[in-house]
From TrEMBL:
It comes from Thermocrinis ruber. Residues 4-305 form the NAD(P)-binding domain. It holds the Pfam family GDP_Man_Dehyd. The lineage of its organism: Bacteria, Pseudomonadati, Aquificota, Aquificia, Aquificales. The keyword NAD applies. This is Nucleotide sugar epimerase.
Length: 321
């Protein structure tokens, strides 16, 4: 297949692209390489992808319709996987505008071009942040109509416009809602990356809340596999991709201490009202439609991530959180 992956230098976009390339697909990647976090991580991922002969990269922004159309004119895509997004709940309160121009308008641009150029399949990366206030475990048919952050609201907007293009123009759409993705080369604003770096540096570890809040931590390779399986024809479906086994932040910290051999110095901060106390994915639909479930345990995933940190510490130590 010939697949366009947006946000290819981002954490999940990189791993999805890499797996597609390893499976023999042709991948065209787009990324604007913005400085939301240290661009050296994006450069690391991008260099990894450029080692594959079936990978082509374009630096640009999905908000730029003219740029995107130039890419669509050059290729006949079988599918688009939209991983380009502004992520982060707390950061979205500081600059909500960029979340909507990227996550909502950018998605609209891609869908319009899929319509105009006859691309039959669209996979949209979405988020468990939409489930705030809903009963757990979170099922896809819950009424997620009251997002509590601009980030969640922008992703809900993207899901809605994707349905519109499915309904009006027959584009086959899979929306995959991710649950707390972690692993090697992750985002430095995410808890696992921050926790490992602070513990390895023997610096105080900032935890919002008392550490009892739980997340459905899901390893990056499992997420990439589920995303690629979602390329199959489904009509319009929303599918949770999560570990289906929540773990407390305090447990994650304990595992990092185990594999680094260092003790954490935790400093507790007030819990942020835009965050979720807990996440827990019901993955029944993923099992039934995709034959997917997560394989990597939290302990194994943390071990692999700490090992990657140790191997790359010579440059990771300079990454700012």
């Amino acid at each position: 297949m010939h697949i366009l992956v947006t946000g290819c230098a981002g954490f999940i976009g990189w791993r999805v692209s890499k797996r597609l390339l390893e499976e023999g697909h042709q991948v065209v990647g787009i990324d604007n390489l913005n400085d939301y976090y240290d661009v050296r991580l994006k450069e690391y991922r991008l260099e990894d992808l450029k080692a594959h002969k079936n990978f082509t990269f374009y630096q640009g922004d999905i908000e730029n319709l003219e740029f995107l159309e130039g890419v669509f004119k050059k290729y006949s895509f079988d599918a688009v996987i939209n991983e380009a997004a502004r992520a982060g709940v707390r950061a979205s309160l500081e600059n909500p505008f960029v979340y909507f121009t990227t996550n909502a308008l950018g998605t609209l641009n891609l869908l319009e071009l899929c319509k105009n150029y006859g691309v039959p399949k669209f996979v949209l990366a979405s988020t468990s942040s939409l489930y705030a206030g809903q009963p757990m475990p979170f099922k896809e048919d819950l009424p997620v109509n009251t997002p509590i952050s601009p980030y969640a609201a922008s992703k809900k907007s993207a899901e809605v416009i994707a349905y519109t293009y499915h309904y009006l123009y027959g584009i086959d759409v899979s929306v995959v809602r991710y649950f707390t993705v972690y692993g090697p080369a992750g985002r430095p604003d995410m808890s696992v990356f921050r926790f490992i770096k602070c513990i390895m540096e023997e610096k105080p570890l900032e935890v919002f809340g008392d550490g009892s809040q739980s997340r459905d931590f899901t390893y990056i390779d499992d997420i990439a596999e589920g995303t690629i399986l979602a390329l199959k024809p489904l009509g319009y479906e929303i599918i949770n991709l999560g570990n289906n086994q929540p773990h407390k932040l305090s447990e994650v910290i304990g595992l990092i201490e185990k594999f680094t051999g260092k003790t954490a110095r935790v400093e507790n901060r007030e819990f942020h009202k835009a965050d979720l106390k807990a996440t827990w994915a019901d993955i029944t639909k993923a099992k039934e439609l995709l034959g997917w479930q997560s394989k990597v345990s939290l302990e194994e995933g943390i071990r692999r991530t700490v090992d990657w940190f140790k191997e790359n510490w010579h440059w990771l130590k300079d990454i700012k959180l």
